[in-house]
Amino acid sequence: MHRFGQGPNGVIMTKSDLIQILSARFQHLPARDIEAAVKGVVEHMVETLSEGGRIEIRGFGSFSVRFRAPRIGRNPKTGTKVELDSKYVPHFKPGKDLKDKVNQR
Amino acid sequence: MALTKNDMMERLIEELSFNRKDAKELVDQFFEEIRGALGRGESVKLSGFGNFDLRDKTERPGRNPKTGEEIPITARRVVTFKSGQKLKTQVEAFEGPLSSD
Q1: Beta strand pairing call for B43-46 and A12-14
Q2: Which among A53, A94, A98, A78 has a CA at the least distance from the CA of B7?
């Protein structure tokens, strides 16, 4: 059993790892540009979803925003009922290529 | 209109003065690297956005919805996405409504 949050092989790739990998690959560009680009792409995705928009990346998947109807929840500690307002939540649907890639054994 | 790799690329060209070729490759590689890591069994954490985790599912009984025939859903590994605090908070602040496109 792997520790919570790690992949089954015990490794985590972070945004900084991604910046390092890409910097090594784009050696003709300054590392700070790669960092700005990776952060920029992430920020672009956050902005889009924050406005209720969709993101579609062929072969990877799509991100969308879903509506959650209001409901009665419970405080798990005290058991008291709490009214929860409706809200919007981000959702990811993996694309076929990504699904196949993680499932190949 | 959904955000695509093309839109991301255009922004890198406009805001960070990337040339078209570098911008295209960077955006392609960004997603390719994440997919590669998940394919190797690594989870991916993008701070400010969210985490892509892997879950191993055991075989379970399933049904062909058309014919009603019972067919087992084989054991498989799937990707799940859990949005980070920043993304969650910002999306919660969206007032709606969602457009239908």
Answers
A1: parallel
A2: A53
| Partner A contacted by B30 (CB < 8 A) | yes
One-letter amino acid identity for B63?
Answer: R
Which of 38-77 (B) contact A at CB < 8 A?
Answer: 38-54, 56, 76-77
Nearest by CB: B87 against A34, A37, A49: A49
Q: What angle do CA A38, A4, B30 make, to 5 degrees?
A: 15
Asked if B42's CB is within 8 angstroms of A11's CB, the reply is: yes
List chain A residues with CB under 8 Å of B19.
none
B78 pLDDT band (50/70/90 cuts)?
very high
CA distance A73 to A82: 5
pLDDT in tens, B39-73: 999 999 999 999 999 999 999 999 999 999 999 99
Q: What is the pTM of this model?
A: 0.90
